[in-house]
Design brief:
The protein is built from 12 helices and 11 strands. By secondary structure, the protein is an alpha+beta fold. The protein has 3 domains: 72 residues, no CATH class; 51 residues; 174 residues, Nuclear Transport Factor 2, Chain: A (Roll). The strands form 3 sheets. Strands 1-5-4-3-2 form a 5-stranded antiparallel beta sheet.
Length: 329
């Protein structure tokens, strides 16, 4: 037995029933201008009506009415063609999207320009403060003791002169720790760039791995300190080319030059510093180093050392190197 509240529905009743409420995901699909095709089920009671354009428009079937679209039957399929309002809404949405993207790019570009401007201003401010700091430092004595100044000299020039100092003749306003030390500690009005330090600059330029070490420091007179030091230098290819090219013939090294190449010289010597207690600066520096003994250890005999004549060249670098202050007229 069947309850009185139960109804039996055949396939003919529910076969052509479709969803009348537009689903949520269909709202996004309607933005596409391409027609959406829907395959109709085989139903004998449904007949299309021909239109003037050669297609068939569905009549008498309100179940295919989709908001914003017109149903057109063609070759057994129903094509949903967007109406003019739907196309206009889609075009308006794309236009708004382009406007928003343009505004976003403008904001990004303005932000980039603002950051770049701030960085440039900060760099200028840092440079101005650095210049101000150096001017203040030059006006005040850096060291109050000759012992401290001499000890700091060996720290600053432990590895010779840096690359920025090698072009001292062309850069009178050089910067860096070594320039600041020379200006503030060893001179009154600056360094005589053409004469002072010329030999030491050549030594740093033509040799690799320069190492200046302080061994002892003693006071030999009032305001005069004598330092015992050792300089270690490496003989590189540029040393052979610039210091004694006479040992190279047609690009080939002589046996003496081969002994020197990639070797290290440990040169012992002394440096004398004269101190001015009034200005709190080093007013004179004289140095003398024993180059010949270092060369003799490498070559093993005086004959080769005499042929090299190298100790004379290095003596030119180290002996009687003087740095004196320039005074105002």
């Amino acid at each position: 037995m069947t309850p009185s509240s139960t109804y039996a529905l055949s396939d003919q009743v529910i076969g052509r029933v479709i969803q009348r409420v537009q689903p949520l995901h269909f709202q996004h699909a309607c933005t596409n201008e391409c027609p959406r095709q829907i395959q109709l089920c085989n139903n004998a009671d449904w007949h299309p009506t021909s239109t003037d354009c050669g297609s068939s428009r569905v009549e008498g079937d309100s179940s295919l009415n989709v908001p914003g679209y017109t149903s057109v039957f063609d070759n057994g399929q129903v094509t949903l063609v967007p109406t003019r309002r739907t196309t206009w809404m889609s075009t308006t949405k794309r236009e708004r999207s382009r406007i928003n993207q343009a505004r976003y790019r403008d904001r990004q570009r303005q932000h980039h320009e603002t950051v770049a401007k701030s960085i440039h201003e900060l760099r200028q401010e840092i440079q101005a403060l650095e210049t101000k700091r150096r001017n203040i430092k030059r006006c005040s004595p850096t060291y109050t003791s000759s012992w401290t100044a001499v000890s700091d000299f060996f720290r600053v020039f432990r590895h010779g002169f840096k690359a920025s100092l090698l072009s001292i003749e062309d850069n009178e306003t050089g910067s860096g720790e070594q320039f600041d030390f020379l200006r503030n500690t060893m001179t009154i009005d600056g360094i005589n760039d053409a004469e002072a330090l010329a030999n030491w600059k050549l030594m740093s330029a033509y040799h690799g791995d320069v190492l200046l070490e302080l061994k002892s420091l003693e006071q030999v007179a009032e305001n005069c300190l004598l330092a015992t030091a050792t300089i270690t230098i490496a003989i590189a290819e540029k040393t052979l080319q610039h210091v004694y090219p006479h040992l190279i013939t047609d690009g080939k090294l002589s046996s003496i030059a081969e002994k020197l190449l990639n070797n290290r010289l440990h040169i012992c010597g002394s440096m004398r510093f004269d101190w001015n207690s009034t200005s709190c600066r080093i007013v004179s520096l004289e140095s003398s180093f024993d180059i010949m003994s270092a060369m003799l250890k490498v070559q093993g005999n005086l004959k080769d050392v005499a042929q090299i004549n190298y100790w004379r060249r290095l003596s030119f670098y180290f002996d009687n190197v003087q740095m004196k202050t320039k005074r105002r007229e």
